[in-house]
């Protein structure tokens, strides 16, 4: 498998379809970031998109223009990676409504809101960026992606709040499971919401999967969730739109939307990027693009 992936990756880097201006926008975003914590690109080349499947075993996609576009983008951000618990470690994950996931809080659902979350906040190898590529918008244009950023949240926090979130550990639960999505597993990941440089903190936030150790901790978490939603920015992804999210500075959410299961449903592809693969290789003693659960480095 890995030889095929490396070949595809090399082809994506040279023929991924991004133009010079878009390449510059992506690299600028990686280096300098922005206040919103995301970059929205439109009208990209995604190739021929077949009818939206209704289950993963019906997923057949011969034109790989969109996959190459995603891999080229992750290569500009760093290295594409996968996780064994997400589509068996595939570097490109496909999301479309699954009837069986109705009312469940997973990326395969549609009629349930996905609350704000930093991707894989419990994982020691957290993606630096995630890239969402819209292959098809939902027919009723209801699906909204929300992004909240620590830069937009900070002006609403007091100095005491900031000190609290830099020092108060929360237990970040994992949904890590090979067989089931959305379980809440205690992997002993006690960590703070804010970390890094106090003048420009990094942020991890996943209220549904965070356990406070005191009443004050819970009250502060509730307060932060309200502020995070107040400053969240909505994005409506149309077909051929790409959303690059800085996962170390933001949390994102998705509104519910209607599914028809007739080939016209919303279809999103996602890829993750890390920018420091050699650091993880040195710490873990293993070079890989696909990570199992890691809770400490
Ligand atoms: Fe997500």
UniProtKB/TrEMBL annotation:
One of its GO terms (molecular function) is dioxygenase activity. Keywords: Dioxygenase, Oxidoreductase. Residues 75-271 form the TauD/TfdA-like domain. InterPro entries: TauD-like_sf, TauD/TfdA-like. This is TauD/TfdA family dioxygenase. It comes from Serpens gallinarum. The lineage of its organism: Bacteria, Pseudomonadati, Pseudomonadota, Gammaproteobacteria, Pseudomonadales.
């Amino acid at each position: 498998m890995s030889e095929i992936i490396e070949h595809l990756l090399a082809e994506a880097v040279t023929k991924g379809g991004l133009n010079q201006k878009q390449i510059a926008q992506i690299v600028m975003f990686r280096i300098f970031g922005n206040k919103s914590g995301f970059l929205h690109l439109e009208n990209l080349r995604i190739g021929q998109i077949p009818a939206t499947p209704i289950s993963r075993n019906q997923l057949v996609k011969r034109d790989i223009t969109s996959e190459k576009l995603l891999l080229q983008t992750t290569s500009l951000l760093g290295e594409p990676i996968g996780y064994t618990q997400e589509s068996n470690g595939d570097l490109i994950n496909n999301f479309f409504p699954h009837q069986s996931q109705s009312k469940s809080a997973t990326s395969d659902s549609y009629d349930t809101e996905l609350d704000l979350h930093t991707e894989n906040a419990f994982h020691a190898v957290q993606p630096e960026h995630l890239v969402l590529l819209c292959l098809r918008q939902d027919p009723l244009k209801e699906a909204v992606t929300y992004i909240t950023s620590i830069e937009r949240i900070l002006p609403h926090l007091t100095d005491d709040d900031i000190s609290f979130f830099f020092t108060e550990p929360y237990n970040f639960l994992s949904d890590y499971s090979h067989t089931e999505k959305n379980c809440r597993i205690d992997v002993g990941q006690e960590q703070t919401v804010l970390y890094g440089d106090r003048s420009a903190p990094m942020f991890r936030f996943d209220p549904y999967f965070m356990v406070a150790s005191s009443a004050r901790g819970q009250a502060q978490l509730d307060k932060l969730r309200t502020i995070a939603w107040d400053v969240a920015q909505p994005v409506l992804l149309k077909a051929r739109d790409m959303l690059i999210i800085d996962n170390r500075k933001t949390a994102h959410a998705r509104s519910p939307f209607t599914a028809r299961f007739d080939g016209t449903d919303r279809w999103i592809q996602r890829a993750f990027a890390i920018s420091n693969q050699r650091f993880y290789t040195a710490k873990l003693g293993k070079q890989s693009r696909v990570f199992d659960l890691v809770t400490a480095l």
